[in-house]
UniProtKB/TrEMBL annotation:
Keyword annotations: Hydrolase, Nuclease
Entry's Gene Ontology molecular function annotations: nuclease activity
Protein name, as recorded: BFN domain-containing protein
Classification via SUPFAM superfamilies: Hypothetical protein TM0160
Keyword Nuclease assigned: yes
Record domain BFN: where: 9-144
GO biological process, one term: protein ubiquitination
Domain of life: Eukaryota
GO cellular component terms given for this protein: nucleus; VCB complex
Pfam families named among the record's database cross-references: BFN_dom (PF02577)
Cited InterPro entries: BFN_sf, Bi_nuclease_dom
């Protein structure tokens, strides 16, 4: 979790099958408020996740976001957002609906299909309820088994590859030698000791790295 907590969860419905094993990716996690405490994780793109966190933290963004523009357009057309609802899952994709009502006549209602990430962003900005189809929540929901801070302790099998990389092998480290050469070369050039710079063994990768270092200090004047 973004607050540093580590949640260990199991599926609420064992007959639902295994959920897809995704690579690390942003997710919006909805918590059910019906007393079950079920969590529904929805994999989203990075931008909707960032904008949602900004809205929840009341971070002011200089330029209007897509969600702010949609909110303003709805109000200009004489409608208001009533609620959003996560309705179903087709294969690995969740679907949501945005419900609008006419200002002054709540019997006139329209709805639009949206991605859940977009619908939730709009709901947070408009301060309206977020609902989830109960069958979907019970089928795809997760139950928290354990909660706590991320632990830095690991088993031997977890740290073995990193330990092998970090421990000395008794052999010369080519990477450290290469970085030392680049450092010496950069220092010689900065002190205008060009003869010394010319005698240093330099590979193409050293030149490329030095070129990148030098570019960061360049400025152009007319």
């Amino acid at each position: 979790m973004r607050d540093g907590r580590h949640l260990r969860c199991i599926q609420n419905n064992p007959q639902a099958g295994n959920l897809p094993d995704y690579a690390p990716h942003p997710a919006i996690v909805l918590k059910m408020e019906d007393g079950t405490g079920l969590l529904l994780p929805i994999i989203v793109l990075e931008m909707p996740s960032v904008l949602l966190m900004a809205a929840m933290s009341n971070v002011q963004i200089p330029r209007p976001t897509m969600y702010q523009v949609v909110k303003d357009m709805i109000e200009k057309m004489g409608y208001s957002v009533k609620l959003v609802r996560v309705t179903k899952r087709v294969h690995e994709a969740y679907f949501a609906q945005l419900y609008l009502t006419k200002v002054g006549d709540e019997t006139e209602c329209v709805s639009f299909d949206l991605r859940p990430s977009d619908a939730i962003n709009i709901a947070v900005r408009c301060k309206v309820p977020i609902q989830v189809n109960k069958y979907l929540a019970y089928s795809d929901g997760m139950r928290v088994m354990e909660s706590g801070k991320l632990s830095v302790q690991s088993t031997a099998s977890d740290v073995l590859p990193h330990a092998e990389l970090d421990q000395p092998s008794g052999q010369p480290c080519l990477d450290s030698e290469e970085f030392k050469i680049v450092g010496d070369l950069n220092e010689a050039i900065s002190q205008e000791r060009y003869k010394d710079a010319g005698t240093l063994p330099v590979s193409f990768s050293d030149i490329a790295l030095l070129f990148n270092i030098g570019l960061s200090h360049l400025s152009f004047v007319q």
